[in-house]
Amino acid sequence: MRPGPEALAAAEPVLRAGTSPDAGVALTGDKSLMFLDASDAFVVFGISGGSWIAYGGPVGPAQAAEDVAFDFVEEARRAGARPVFYEVGAEDVPVMLDLGMQLHKMGKDAVVDLSRFSLEGSSRKKLRAAHARAGRDGLTLEILSPPHDPALIERLREISDAWLVAKHAREKGFSVGRFDPAWLGRWPLAVVLRESEPVAFANVMTAGDGRAASIGLMRHADDAPSGTMKYLFTELMLQLKACGCLRFSLGMAPLSGLAPERSSRLSDRFGAAIYRHGGGFYNFEGLRAFKQKFDPV
Description:
Blueprint: H1 5-16, E1 32-35, E2 42-48, E3 51-55, H2 62-78, E4 82-86, H3 93-98, E5 109-113, H4 125-136, E6 139-144, H5 150-166, H6 181-184, E7 189-194, E8 197-207, E9 212-220, H7 228-242, E10 247-252, H8 266-279, H9 286-291
Parallel strand pairs: 3-4, 9-10
Antiparallel strand pairs: 1-2, 2-3, 5-10, 6-7, 7-8, 8-9
Helix pairs in contact: 4-7
């Protein structure tokens, strides 16, 4: 059962008050929401076969989140389904164990400490040069707050549609965002411009009063200059840092062989994020060539 406008409206303040910006995909409308009676905590989930699959851990204050997680498991079992929690964080492990869930490590949330991120120093020489080259190519990045201009959304839709066609892909949904004007309208948009024309974009999901951020969807035009997405990440993090954001989450690494949990290289983490949001469709000379452009943090 898809959530209606009232359910999505009730979920949004709970999500924004939390600590996980990745939970912003709960508002895409393609998943169900289970609330406590007080509507101060919820679980976002989908049904596949005989399983109820929650995306992430329960969202909300600690005790309320624990209570709604128990409700979710009980309701699933009552319906004869198997409850599953996908991509839970370390903070949710105690609750999962209390629920009797079996834990399987699939990756690790790749988080950039923005207080340490900069383009200064010898270790950032290549990244600094790439950033400067993007400037010479005429690229700029603007973070636009909602409400968004309908004309802009339509232009971004054109970019998104062309991207999907070029990659022979369809929208993914569930654990990543999809192009939907209503969902995009809930968040700031990071738009890369060349001569005032959009060539790439990403939405910027936030939590914790803007102290943590992540992206749920990113796309680029076919004629975007080489290095555009790297520029988007780099410039976005610099601007978020300047606005007081402390953490930028690239999401959990998928089963892609990138294994960023074993590496301190920022490049590996960028690669994980790009894979997560469509790396199976991106044909950068593999992500290996991409990650070599970054130094460790």
